[in-house]
Specification:
Keywords: Cell wall, Cell wall biogenesis/degradation, Hydrolase, Membrane, Secreted, Transmembrane, Transmembrane helix. By secondary structure, this protein is an alpha/beta fold. The chain contains 16 helices and ten strands. Strands 4-1-2-5-3-6-7-8-9-10 form a ten-stranded mixed beta sheet, with helices on both faces. α1 runs antiparallel to α3 and α2 crosses α3. The longest helix is centred in the first third of the chain and has 23 residues. The chain binds 2-acetamido-2-deoxy-beta-D-glucopyranose (NAG) (3 copies). One 2-acetamido-2-deoxy-beta-D-glucopyranose (NAG) binds next to loops.
Length: 467
């Protein structure tokens, strides 16, 4: 089964990264995973990558697609451990590259990545009217739910700063160009790296089980990075926004009120979760795959202590990690950006590997345009569950949302999806414009797209097409 997929996936990645005609918008989603694994797994010494010629990239692509795919299989073969499309790479071009800062103060509290290395962040200073404003973005990349999967992760950039790229581009909501990021371009912008495997919410009491050496210290990492940023000027912020994508979107929800509590009372503080609204829904066989998966993450990493107390006194802690429960108790103004047909959720929650032994869903999982009418009906049901889970936020005066009917995942940290002439729009507004309207109280923003396939501004990911 895996072997059969190999040529297909390798072709997809290759053509997405290198086909000039068709690459356009979503190139980054694919190349992301590619470059992440490329950097992390293949050649940690590779520092001069900006200077590579096209030919070198092509050669590297062929070679490392193999590694990538082996990795994809590894992650995909069980539960939703996959980090696909939520990591952090764009193609090298004329991007401004921001260096990694290792958090030396983490030693004092033992706030280590899974392997015991120091965590890190990337920081670009604000200027002009943005000098006292701060935007923190938390990187995503799935979770690890067992000693085995955490052991694998600790040998990647998602579990160890040893493998993190020292320079990354800042795009979309992280960009310092006003054309790409009209409202936040001159703010202090920080990208927190994700290296604990539990959305920055693990606790050390639960580590060193069965003689393994894994540091489960996400909560300490969050606290140590916050402490450093507060000392760099965050403590005097006038306006601030905590955000993140995928597992980083979940981390945003988990830490939102704590972020607020650290900032001045008169500051404007809000939170934005991108593709982090994971649903507590059964898969197509009726199994609770995602719920079981989160149960294991929460148990393994002792996450309950980072969740709302109101919730864990009422129900099983692993229920309280689901965004629909978190938003019941969150007090800080919140905006949700999520596609209604989030391909990560479709591939891991609705139709996880193993739920479709006959392969009936094989093509539909990879491309919404290949779904038959019964499958589309299923997807519409998934969309309805998302809207239902968001109903509290719909009635919240300070809340906002942008739920577009596209088959994508993270959308805020790429110029192509955040704010450009051909980005996805609802009511003719880009995600950047919608988030800006909400943040600055310019307009109530609760944008919900009509159901698939009505929105012509959507670009749908197609993992079956070699362009
Ligand atoms: C530790 O090992 C025991 C026995 O082999 C097993 O039952 C248990 O699940 C393991 N704990 C973890 C966290 O893997
Ligand atoms: C999923 O559900 C099916 C049918 O209800 C059952 O046979 C199967 O064992 C379940 N699989 C898992 C992994 O729980
Ligand atoms: C959509 O917005 C753009 C500016 O962002 C504007 O030029 C265009 O006229 C608008 N189209 C419609 C149909 O309102």
């Amino acid at each position: 089964m895996g072997l059969l997929c190999f040529p297909l996936v390798s072709l997809v990645i290759h053509s997405f990264c290198y086909n000039k005609d068709k690459q356009t918008k979503y190139l980054t989603l694919h190349c992301n995973l590619f470059f992440w694994s490329f950097e992390a797994m293949a050649n940690p010494r590779l520092r001069g990558w900006r200077k590579w010629a096209k030919k070198d990239w092509a050669i590297a692509a062929v070679g490392f697609t193999i590694i990538l795919f082996a990795l994809t299989l590894l992650f995909d073969s069980r539960n939703p451990t996959s980090s696909s499309s939520s990591s952090t790479f764009n193609l090298p071009s004329n991007h401004h590259l921001i260096p990694l800062t290792l958090l030396h103060r983490a030693k004092a509290t033992g706030a280590f990545c899974l392997d015991g290395s120091l965590p890190g962040y990337h920081f670009q200073k604000g200027f002009g009217s943005g000098s006292n404003n701060w935007l923190l973005h938390i990187e995503g990349g799935g979770w690890c739910n067992s000693i085995e999967t955490c052991e694998i992760r600790k040998r990647t950039a998602l579990g160890s700063s040893k493998y993190m790229d020292p320079l990354i581009p800042f795009d979309g909501i992280l960009s310092h160009q006003s054309s790409q990021n009209p409202d936040f371009y001159n703010w202090n912008i920080v990208k927190m790296r994700y290296c604990d495997g539990a959305s920055l919410a693990g606790h050390p009491e639960s580590e060193f089980k069965n003689g393994t050496k894994l540091f489960l210290r996400g909560q300490l990492i969050w606290e140590a990075i916050m402490s450093e940023l507060l000392s760099l000027g965050l403590s005097k912020a006038k306006q601030a926004l905590l955000t993140g994508c995928s597992a980083g979107g979940l981390a945003t929800l988990i830490h939102c009120d704590d972020f607020r509590a650290h900032l001045p009372k008169d500051a404007t503080v809000k939170c934005l979760a991108d593709a982090g609204f994971f649903l507590d829904e059964p898969d197509i066989l009726g199994n609770r795959t995602m719920s079981n998966f989160y149960h294991d993450v929460v148990q393994l990493q002792g996450v309950a202590k980072s969740l709302h107390k109101e919730c864990i006194t009422e129900m099983e802690p692993s229920k309280c990690i689901f965004p629909q429960q978190i938003i019941e108790n969150i007090r800080t103004p919140l905006f949700i950006v999520n596609p209604a047909y989030d391909f990560w959720q479709i591939q891991h929650i609705l139709v996880p590997a193993g739920s479709d032994p006959d392969g009936y869903w094989r093509r539909c999982r990879l491309s919404i345009q290949k779904c038959d009418s019964t499958q589309i009906e299923n997807l519409q049901g998934f969309r309805s569950s998302l809207l239902k889970a968001l109903s509290k936020l719909q009635h919240d005066k300070e809340g906002g949302m942008f739920i577009n009917s596209c088959f994508v995942h993270c959308q805020t940290w790429m110029a192509e999806t955040w704010h450009s002439s051909n980005s996805p729009r609802i009511n003719n507004k880009t995600i950047a414009e919608s988030v800006g309207d909400w943040y600055f109280n310019r307009k109530v923003t609760k944008e919900i797209d009509c159901p698939y396939p009505c929105n012509p501004t959507c670009y749908h990911m197609d993992f079956t097409q070699p362009s």
